[in-house]
Structure formats: C-alpha cells, structure tokens
Design a protein that fits this description.
The protein is of the alpha+beta class and 291 residues long. It has two domains: 2-129, Diaminopimelate Epimerase, Chain A, domain 1 (Roll), CATH 3.10.310.10; 134-283, Diaminopimelate Epimerase, Chain A, domain 1. It has helices at residues 2-7, 38-48, 84-98, 140-150, 180-184, 190-199, 234-246; strands at residues 12-16, 25-30, 52-59, 67-74, 79-80, 102-107, 110-118, 124-129, 134-136, 164-167, 171-176, 204-212, 215-222, 227-230, 254-260, 268-274, 281-289. An eight-stranded mixed barrel has the order 1-2-3-4-6-7-8-17.
Length: 291
C-alpha cells in the first residue's frame, strides 16, 4: 500500500478565481493521472477535501495543434461531469509548468477549449469555453420544494430573474434573490436540498442577486458533492450567462462579473463573456498555487 501511494502522481492545490491563496475556490489538480483507477481518484478527492479535484492525462494533440487532455472531476463523494473552477485551476497549473498555451479538455460533458495567459501582475489566468448550453423551465412545485429547503419564501425572489434550469456542462437551478441580505443569509436544510437535487440531476443551486446590469453576486449550495457551499462555481457562471442571454436579460455581446465567496470569507471574481455570434459562454479567472 505504501509503495502504491509513493508511486502516485503529485496532487497540486490551487485557488481558482482569485489572485491570493486565501481567496477563491480551492481545487486539487493531478496532471498525470492516467494510471489511477476511478476508485483511487475518488479516494484522493476525499483526502484532499476540496469541492473538486481534477485528474488529467494527455491524449493526441487536436488537429489545430491544441494540446489535449482527458479530464475527470471528483468531489469528496461523487464524480461530476464537469467543474469550472477545477478547469481554470488545471489550465493555470499546466501554464505554470509548460507555459501559456491553447488546450483542449475532453470531459464527460464534451470538449472544453481552455486558453491560458500570463498577466502583468505575474499571475496566470485561464478562459474556458463552455459546451453547448441550454435553458429549461422548472416546475413550480420543484421551486416551492427548493425554497422550503433553503428556508426562503416566494416573495423573497426577484421577479425579474425567474427560476429556470440552466446547463453549460452540468445542470443548475437558478434562483434570483430580491435583496443582497436574502443572499447573505444562507442556512438551508442540507439533506432536503440534496434529495431534490439528486432527483433533478442538479449539480448546484445557483443563488444570484443582481447588483447592476453587469454585476451579479452568487452563492452555490453543493450538497450533492458533500460540500455545503462552493466559493466560486465556473460551471454555474457559464450557465448563468446562457440564462441571461436566453431570457433576454442582457444585451449581447456582454461581459458580466460575478462576485462569489464573499460571505464565506473567500472572495472570488468570475468574468463571463456572452457572445452574440455563437452559443458558447466563456468564463475567465485567475488561479494561484496554495502553498
């Protein structure tokens, strides 16, 4: 057992969507995971204890020359098809090892292009391009059940941000809070919300408050992954971009900023570019190694 552990690749630790190690969303990154079984990946993710750990192994380059990787994502309790913050962290980890580049991540949700760049402050940033997104209606009874688990009432919702399901790699229930105070006060029934999310294949519930047309605040409960809350959720940010465009809640092309993690003491900044020319959503963020 000890010999097997010694032969395993290193687990890197990064904070995504931040420029400081004590901000953003921590992610584990394993850059050479080809010999690991799914069971061992899950065990490593549980040992790391972050909301997700990404496991990568190289594959043949793309026809256009992009370096390509197969990627799997594990929370401490389950495998998830896609994770935005661990994608940003992985892109930056590769850029720090090999230099900025154009990458192609092959995930369970589809191919996700990733571009990395060095910033003037010495940090690295990565931009992911989502898979084909969609936005769907959600039954009123399901919204009522979610609100009950959250200990919210219907009159605490923003009528200009109607509840919907949005997908950009994984599914999220988007609920708009009428006030910043409602968003700040998060005290939910973990098991009740988890049951609802499992029943409807939801990865997080994306709770958002609109500060302005271009700035949003978000919180993302993640009980299905064994985590109370995510400090920064790139997949949900991409899904929110698709939601805003589909419901004509923003004039495209548009760039919005999402502040997340503030109420957890891990402030994060997610930049979302919503195109008028294609359906994909692009999410950009910095990432830094955690000592």
């Amino acid at each position: 057992m000890h010999a097997d552990r010694a032969a395993e690749p290193a687990v890197l630790r990064y904070a995504a969507f931040t420029g400081t190690p004590d901000g953003g969303n921590p992610a584990g990154v394993v850059l050479d995971a080809g010999d690991l079984t799914a069971g061992r990946m899950l065990a490593i993710a549980a040992e790391v204890g972050y909301s997700e750990t990404a496991f990568l192994w190289p594959r043949d380059p793309e026809p256009g020359g992009a370096r390509a990787f197969d990627v799997r994502y594990f929370s401490p309790t389950i495998e998830v098809p896609f994770c935005g913050h661990a994608t940003i962290a992985s892109g930056v980890a590769l850029a720090e090892r090999d230099g900025p580049n154009v990458l192609a991540f092959h995930t369970s949700s589809g191919e996700v292009p990733v571009e990395t760049a060095a910033l003037e402050d010495g940090n690295m940033a990565a931009t992911l391009t989502s898979v084909e997104p969609y936005v769907a209606d959600v039954a009123h009874d399901d919204v009522v059940e979610a609100l009950a688990a959250l200990h919210w009432t219907e009159d605490e919702l923003d009528p200009l941000l109607p509840p919907h399901i949005a997908y950009a790699g994984v599914r999220h229930l988007i609920l708009g809070a009428a006030t910043r105070g409602r968003l700040a006060d998060l005290d939910y029934d973990f098991e009740a919300l988890k049951r609802l999310m499992i029943a409807h294949d939801l990865t997080t519930v994306d709770l958002v408050w609109r500060e302005s047309d271009r700035r949003f605040h978000a919180r993302n409960p993640f009980p299905v992954g064994g985590v109370v809350e995510d400090p920064a959720t790139g997949a949900a940010a991409a899904a929110l971009g698709a939601y805003l465009r589909t419901l004509d809640l923003v004039s495209v092309p548009a760039r919005i900023t999402i502040a997340q993690g503030e109420d957890m003491g891990r402030p994060s900044e997610l930049i979302v570019d919503i195109s008028a020319e294609d359906s994909a959503i692009r999410v950009t963020g910095r990432a830094v190694a955690i000592p």
